[in-house]
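User: Predict the complex with 6-diazenyl-5-OXO-L-norleucine.
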Amino acid sequence: MSPATGAVTEALGELHARYADVGDGELADYIPQLALADPDDFGLALVSMDGHRYSAGDADVPFTAQSVSKPFVYALALSLLGLDEVSRWVNAEPSGEAFNGISLERTTGRPANAMVNAGAIVTTALIPHTPGTPRFTRILDCLSRFAGRSLDVDEQVYASESFTGDRNRALAYLIRSTGPLPVDPVAAVETYFRQCAVRVTALDLAAMAATLAHGGVNPLTGEQVVSEAVAAQVLAVMATCGMYDSSGAWLLRVGLPAKSGVSGGLIAAGPARFGVAAYSPPLDTTGTSVRGRLAIGELSRRLGLHLMRNPALAASTVTLVTTAGDLPTAPAAGHERAAHEDVAVVAAQGALDFTAAERVLHALDEAGPEGTGAVLDLVRVTGIGGVARAMLRDGLVRLTADGLRTAVADPDGLLRRPGHEDGDPRIFATREEAVDWCLGRGGGGSGPPARPGPPPSGP
Ligand code: DON
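Assistant: Here is the predicted structure with 6-diazenyl-5-OXO-L-norleucine placed in the model:
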């Protein structure tokens, strides 16, 4: 076992051992077939953004997704219809009520959110149903893409819920009586029951959660299942509504978007980090797996995964704030040295987002805006977001407008754009070339992969 596999598997194994003997909770029995589950089954699974799969215990025991299907069908509705259209039918407000509550807006009958049963039934009804592609085919196909393999339906669980599911039927009729149910309530509820009876394992659920965490791209198959925007929308609703009447306390203590189901499945997503899932059938009073809640809560605390504790703050973006006079290549004294001291040099590293770009621009200010030149060294930058790119270009253009010669050491062309605009900084392959150009040396050299720019005008 590799060191990484060992460390993560060990962490899951420890959590599994710690909670395996917890005997609290009751099996769901309002769907009779669910009462036949083995209360001792307990599986944990985690899928990373690179598609590595880790597990402990009964991670490949099949069970039905139940409410864990809801965020994924919501994702499908958002993909097909867009947020504005879906929001006309289903709101996105935490209800503070149980999963089967009558969580409907008083005047419009619109369900509070897509995670409670009322909202999920409407969401399912929104999925287009055409002769060539029935509604449930679209749903099963979508859930399968999220899991990265072909899923099927547990017909016995489906039949069991259909037999006893009068409360959901009542909800559907109630919703239609006030307006927002675009299809026949009986048809909507039967499709919803089938989606709840889709068979998964904890490893499947971890892959599904990881796909949401990975901007809609399944890390196992590489398929873009939903857009990055839709994945973020779904995670937002999971964060505020996914745990029903314990959503606030969950976000407070665990800090991850999550979704529970009455068969004992529970998922949580660490955006850009991982998807995790637990399976253990005994439930607490909110319909959430007792062991799942304990294990995922402890995983979040142990690994510092709470979303509101931003690990990006600890990383250092700016690695150097100085002048060319302090670089090893500077002359020891004289006129040449003074010229070097008039060129600010700032180096950055890692992936640059809005926060990182703001720091880099501050560092450029700090390094000496009253000099004659400024060099931004991006050699060790591994990636840059669109917002950060625009901010850095804009900041450098301002320095140029203030009369400075500005140059970027940018071998990967992160700040490059097609064409050239007046005031754009020059781009060079190395820091040394960029400094030389700011000093008026090097014949305006545009070392590879510099793009063509105007000839230097002299300091
Ligand atoms: O509609 C129902 O009652 C079930 N098919 C699903 C409910 C559920 O999983 C609630 N989650 N904890």
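The chain has a mean pLDDT of 91.
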